[in-house]
Amino acid sequence: MGSVDGRAAAAELLELLGSASPGLAGAVLATLPEPLLLPTATERDGYVPNVVYSCGVLLHDDTLVIPYGASDASIGLATTSLRGLIAALTGESQPQHALPHAGGLP
Q: Where are the domains of the chain?
């Protein structure tokens, strides 16, 4: 379970996404200029090449842990900062790509 600070950041993200406001449900309120998750060089070949797709997200403190599939040939985990993502979505900072982790998380 995430920390109280992580829960506050998650609530902020849900509000940004419109989930906290019924009238805005489904509305796109912010986007990143580039994808959050990109395939690595070894994840580009497969049945559906050059594609990564998220399989959900887990929150641990300020870290979003993102399980994903790549090119229908492999699976992986990537991480990114929740606060950093919110800052990028609100224009307070430059977006950072999620970092893939080979062989587990640090």
A: 4-93
